[in-house]
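New here. Your pick:
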Amino acid sequence: ECQNYADIESTNGNYVGGIAGKSESAIRKSYAKSKLTGKRYIGGIAGKTDIATACYTIANVNGDENTGAICGDVENKDNLYQNFYVDNGFGAVDGISYSGKAAPITFEELRAVRGIPKRFISFTITFIAEDKIRRSLQKTDTLAGGNR
């Protein structure tokens, strides 16, 4: 039951995840909204994990190999259950989505999920001109296309 709202970058490493870089146990009921960057095993929830259940991501994943909106890789695809991500053009696990296991969801569907943390579906829009912040708006309504 973890949450992450920070961007994560490894300039020369592997195993980058919104909740865990590498987990040899289960990750359950976790939320990650972030931009993740690394080389191999880059995932919205975990770079690599044994089990992922009921997790949600809004992720922008950048890596060379083994990248996914949910996980860069998982030991056994049968250990994925009811994970969802807002589709930004990435597959769920190493570029592939799995119905009922790790699948895309629209931002509108995500907003309707019971118990979803309010912070997870909220966004701040900042307007900058001449290197100065001019205005920031908190957005909790719909977000076209689910982009950050």
Notes: The helical segments are 107-111.
